[in-house]
């Protein structure tokens, strides 16, 4: 596989789950305080448990810059600033290196999307979680994906894990949308 094929294979295989999640999260109005609070509540419900599960599974052993990639602290700061209580979902389990990489792929992809969402957040709102990371971190992850997801088995494991992470976010968003919009 070349450097882009593992990433594109993951993107293609998870496209439906990603599109479903984008549709759900687009229902949150980030331009007002209430909608932004709901959005962060839904994010926290999944993100915090997924990142912790990746930590426990050994993401730091696979990605030397794992500690720099983690964003739970930023999300926790934003959540505290808005007095939000996270309604956490059950985290996926990551057992293999490929599963860990599939989970990290989703979280790092959300960082790219967060940079675009940040433009819709009103000035003065806590937005550390949506702050963009270094573009070099994404390129480095793509290189690792290509290097380590070099077999159909590894790629399938990564896709399964990525799909389960998308599902965790979908579950969290549905909970919040149901609680606030029913």
Essential attributes:
mainly alpha, 70% helix, Heme Oxygenase, Chain A, 182 residues
Question: How is this structure best described in words?
Answer:
With 182 residues, the chain is mostly helical. The chain has one domain (5-176): Heme oxygenase-like (Heme Oxygenase, Chain A). The protein has helices spanning 5-13, 15-25, 33-57, 59-62, 66-69, 72-81, 97-117, 135-148, 152-180. Helix 1 crosses helix 9, helix 3 (33-57) runs antiparallel to helix 6 and helix 7 (97-117) packs across helix 9 (152-180). The N and C termini lie far apart (46 Å).
Can you lay out the helices and strands and say which pair or pack?
Elements (H helix, E strand, L loop, with lengths): L4 H9 L1 H11 L7 H25 L1 H4 L3 H4 L2 H10 L15 H21 L17 H14 L3 H29 L2
Helix pairs in contact: 1-9, 2-9, 3-6, 3-7, 3-9, 7-8, 7-9
Number of separate domains: 1
- Low-pLDDT windows of residues: none
What spatial form do the alpha-carbon principal axes imply?
A: globular
CATH topology: Heme Oxygenase, Chain A
Helix/strand/pairing category: mainly alpha
Assembly type of the chains comes to single chain
Distance between the termini: 46 Å
Fourth-tier CATH superfamily name: Heme oxygenase-like
Helix residue percentage: 55-70%
Beta content: under 5%
């Amino acid at each position: 596989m070349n450097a882009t094929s593992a990433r594109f294979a993951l993107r293609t295989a998870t496209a439906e789950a990603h599109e479903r999640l984008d549709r759900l999260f687009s229902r949150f109005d980030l331009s007002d305080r209430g909608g932004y609070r709901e959005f962060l509540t839904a994010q926290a419900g999944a993100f915090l448990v997924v990142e912790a599960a990746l930590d426990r599974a050994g993401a730091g052993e696979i990605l030397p810059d794992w500690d720099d990639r983690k964003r739970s602290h930023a999300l926790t700061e934003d959540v505290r600033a808005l007095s939000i209580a996270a309604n956490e979902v059950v985290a996926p389990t990551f057992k293999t290196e490929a599963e860990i990489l599939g989970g990290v792929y989703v979280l790092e992809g959300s960082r790219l999307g967060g940079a675009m969402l940040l433009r819709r957040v009103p000035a003065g709102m806590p937005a550390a979680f949506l702050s963009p990371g270094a573009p070099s971190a994404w390129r480095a992850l793509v290189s690792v994906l290509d290097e380590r997801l070099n077999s159909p088995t590894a790629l399938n494991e990564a896709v399964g894990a990525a799909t389960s992470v998308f599902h965790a976010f979908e579950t969290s968003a549905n909970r919040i949308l149901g609680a606030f919009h029913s």
